[in-house]
């Protein structure tokens, strides 16, 4: 039995309750959760903007220690330190075999109908698993293709934020954009994902790195992580400022907050041949587009789900970047809190004034 933060009804916050886990099936891994970052994607479900089966346990940015494995698990073993990732992949679909693992629907990674649920409450009520993980819990029971072993020298709180914010932000720079040294990068939104993208752009050797955010304190964090220029994203002439700073527009305009206005700013700031990359989970009725003149100028628009990661390869490399002092995760983490303060952590996220809050388990 483990304590977990459970979503009963959208808009009513999370309640702390006990859940019991089933025995691992052949390809499943039971993990003692050590840290879990709070992500804006969770908030979309908690506040009811995106639908999900309930009750459910949110949380998808976590690190922990493997307690037990199923009979066929080959990738991790008890005692391993691991980072989880919501991009659970099957390994044999069209997306997986063509190297686009982040697009895998992961059908073979979930329990089949008729099998016992992974999590139940004390009265036997099933608890839905959110985003393949449900990491706001003292334990996780997940498919082996939803976690990867990492260097045991890596602190758990920093390792946790690799699982989503850094995988998405840095992965976009390294995988989706493949930024060439000297190219100009705009990042709109300086939360955890945006800050990770800025840090990765510096590692990749980008020329000008422009951070756009309404809050001065987040623009200051962006400068610490590698932004060469910062602007107020809500300024009426924000796009004109970016075009002037970049000398005609940016090569890559990365939207990292999930708002219509920020996506429009990313598009409006492109140079000829530039690409806008949408990372944030925008309201479901939002649309982002290119004009006829944009298309004639060779401009492009794309999504980059979870940074188009190859997480079994990417995550250990990101750990190495941190341990060698290249990747700054300490600046991204604003606070460390216990599980019973999870609702206060999400309240701070709604206010928007800080970077990542991380729940740390004893």
Description:
The chain has 362 residues and is of the alpha/beta class. The protein folds into 2 domains: 2-149 and 332-360, Alpha-Beta Complex (Quinone Oxidoreductase, Chain A, domain 1), CATH 3.90.180; 169-305, Rossmann fold, CATH 3.40.50.720. It is 28% helix and 25% strand. The protein contains 10 helices and 18 strands. It has helices spanning 40-46, 94-97, 156-177, 192-204, 216-225, 238-246, 260-268, 292-296, 311-323, 342-351; strands at residues 2-7, 14-21, 28-37, 56-57, 62-69, 81-84, 119-120, 128-129, 139-143, 147-149, 185-188, 209-212, 229-231, 250-255, 270-278, 300-303, 333-337, 356-360. The strands form 4 sheets. Strands 3, 5, 6, 9, 10, 17 and 18 form a 7-stranded mixed beta sheet that branches. Strands 13-12-11-14-15-16 form a 6-stranded parallel beta sheet, sandwiched between helices. The chain has a 3-stranded antiparallel beta sheet with strand order 1-2-7, with no helix packed on it. Helix 5 (216-225) links the parallel strand 12 and strand 13 (229-231). The chain is globular, with a radius of gyration of 20 Å. The model has no long low-confidence stretch (mean pLDDT 96).
Strand and helix map with partners:
Blueprint: E1 2-7, E2 14-21, E3 28-37, H1 40-46, E4 56-57, E5 62-69, E6 81-84, H2 94-97, E7 119-120, E8 128-129, E9 139-143, E10 147-149, H3 156-177, E11 185-188, H4 192-204, E12 209-212, H5 216-225, E13 229-231, H6 238-246, E14 250-255, H7 260-268, E15 270-278, H8 292-296, E16 300-303, H9 311-323, E17 333-337, H10 342-351, E18 356-360
Parallel strand pairs: 4-8, 11-12, 11-14, 12-13, 14-15, 15-16, 17-18
Antiparallel strand pairs: 1-2, 2-7, 3-5, 3-9, 3-18, 5-6, 6-10
Helix pairs in contact: 3-4, 3-9
